Amino acid sequence: MNFNGITLEKLVLIAVIAGIIIGPEKLPGYAEKLAQMVRKGGEMLKGARSRMREEIGAEADDLDWRKLDPRQYDPRRIIRDALLDDSPPPRPSGQSAIVEPAKPAVPSVLGREFSRETPPPFDLEAT
């Protein structure tokens, strides 16, 4: 079991050190406070889940939360996809038919053209 670099052995070591520092007299009181905090955190989590189900409905159970994790998005890929997107931008509402502008030039470097099949070179060491 590994929680962001903290293994079970490290947790046991921390608990032993905390037990030595706190002392046997105060340890039961602190253990009770910790149990109360864990229970309260569980109740808060259940309350948040129930509120979400009330607001979103039955669809909340079917959500794939991993798809909504912002850590999975690579900004470089998002920008590249947006630059290479072939669809025209949405037309503002209320405007009459607008003549579509000419397709913008494909980004190129030193005469090389890039597309979805041949993306531009990527430097891993660039900042």
UniProtKB/TrEMBL annotation:
Q: How does it sit in the membrane?
A: Single-pass membrane protein
Keywords assigned: Membrane, Protein transport, Translocation, Transmembrane, Transmembrane helix, Transport
Q: Where is this region: Disordered?
A: 80-127
Q: What's the short name of a Pfam family annotated to this entry?
A: TatA_B_E
Protein's cellular compartments: Membrane
Pro residues bias (residue ranges) = 118-127
Gene3D superfamilies (alphabetical): 1.20.5.3310
InterPro entries found in the cross-reference section? TatA/B/E
Please give the name of this protein.
Answer: Translocase
Per the UniProt entry, what species is this protein from, by scientific name? Microbacterium keratanolyticum
